[in-house]
Amino acid sequence: MTIKxxxxxxxxxxxxxxxxxxxxxxxxAKTRGWEVMGIEDATHGLIDLDYxxxxxxxxxxxxxxxxxxxDGGTILGTSNKSDPWNYVVERDGQETTIDVSARVVENYHxxxxxxxxxxxxxxxMKIAKKLSNLGLRIVGVPKTIDQDVAATDTTFGxxxxxxxxxxxxxxLHDTAESHGRVMLVEVMGxxxxxxxxxxxxxxxxxxxxxxxxxxxxxxxVKKISRRRVGGRPYSIAVVAEGARPQGxxxxxxxxxxxxxxxFGAAQRVAVSLEPHLELDVRVTILGYLQRGGSxxxxxxxxxxxxxxxxxxxxxxxxxxxMVSLSNQEITTxxxxxxxxxQRLVDPQGQLVHAARSVGICFGDD
Length: 365
Known about the structure:
Low-confidence stretches: none
Order of helices and strands: EHEHEEEHEHEHEHEHEEEHEHEEHH
Strand order of the largest sheet: 3-2-1-6-7-14-15
CATH topology of the largest domain: Rossmann fold
Radius of gyration: 22 Å
Structural class: alpha/beta
Helix content: 25-40%
Number of domains: 2
Mean pLDDT: 94
CATH architecture of the largest domain: 3-Layer(aba) Sandwich
Strand content: 15-25%
Distance between the termini: 59 Å
Number of helices: 11
Number of strands: 15
């Protein structure tokens, strides 16, 4: 198999570590004499070759990636609105979705690509698998701050997001204690609460509410009251955006062709708590702060390793595969294994057990 030109694209939400992957792909491919085509804004650049943002599809040289290792975001742009099987268009004044997957295949060949490296989360991997089924040579690279992609020990971006939340918790401890307040910190995590759990452990939170463990308000009130009686009139709670009360649901906004948006989790908790407490309750929503910033060294290194491994997978013909970290070693797994199910927090797992053992309340006792 002769490889002359490969493509690389980043899809879904951005996260720290994408640029290290792009850099590694370009540098490793160049040593093999390959050209690397950067595809703009996920599959938008394959759906429409005339699609233009400030970037555009372009051949990437060493100079383009020379100083991006430490940069957050992605120099290629990204999108979570470019599913070729559910592409949003306007017809007769109404938005509707159409299937443009055949156009993606056609444009892949028009660009002269011999293979495509797709960097993304579970949604992007599902698209990559479907494109692979259409005959495209695809290698996947897992990324997500939510840590919810299966078949890999970890994804880059996660540790940087946890650092962001932990830094916020450190700061909020100071003001919460000064005023004797209850601080609720809402973090990302629609279905998987990995960020909330890790940050709660690292940031000395007293309460942690996860999508995987529905909570009861009375349990949270008891935890806060016990702390107050014990001479600690303040409490810190980390609330994943997908956290829900027992027997309740989450608030979701779902627009055509977009990923569902969860909102209001921490505010719902605050409203439920206030009638039962004599303390001020404040909400901080970290939101997209968790996606930005320079990647921590772990994510820079993992992104680099993944990028190199993806090029090696192309070289050895391991298409329809996703690079993966397993027991500190990089390997490849079938993409279908990565999308078979989401990787969720195990309510009976060691991390939850450790958190309970140091007094963190999950609102279920």
